Amino acid sequence: VERLNSLGVDRWRKEILSDMDELRWFVCYRKKSTDMIYSKLAHYEHMDQLREATSILELALWKESINCSVANDQESVMTSCHNEDTMNTCRIRCGADVVMPNVVSFLLPA
User: Fold this and answer.
1) Model pTM?
2) 20 to 30 A Cα–Cα from 54, which one of 7, 18, 26, 92?
3) Cα atoms in the 13 Å half-sphere on the side-chain side of 18
C-alpha cells in the first residue's frame, strides 16, 4: 500500500488498483498476475523517479541561467532576481530543450 501511495500520478495508482481488483477473479493465474502487477508497479515507480529527477534538473538549469543573467548585469542584481520577465526569459533560454532529451535517453530503460 505504501509503494502504491508513493506514486505521484493518480492514473497509475488507479490502474494498479484496478489490476489488483481483477486479480481475485483469476485464481488459477494468481502468481503470473501478481508478478505482472509488481512489475508494473516497479516500472511506474521508476517513471515517477525519472519525472522527479527531470524536474529537478530543469530547475537547476533554470537557476543557473538566472545566475548567469544576474552575473552579466551586476547593476540590476536585485531587480533581475525578482523581475518576472527576466525569470521567464531565463527559463525559456536555459537549454533544457537540448539537455533534457540527451539526459533522459540515458535514464530510460533499454
Assistant:
1) 0.62
2) 18
3) 7
Cβ neighbors of 91 (< 8 A, separation 6 or more) are 62, 65
For residue 78, the model assigns a pLDDT of 46
Which ranges constitute the DSSP H helices of the chain?
A: 2-5, 10-23, 30-72, 77-82, 84-92, 96-107
SS3 64: helix
The rounded distance, in Å, linking the Cα atoms of 81 and 73 is 11
Name the one residue in this structure whose C-alpha cell is 527531470.
Answer: 54
Tens digits of residue pLDDT in 11-67? 888 888 888 887 766 666 777 788 888 898 998 888 888 888 888 988 888 888 777
Alpha-carbon dihedral angle through residues 29, 30, 34, 35, given to the nearest 10 degrees: -50
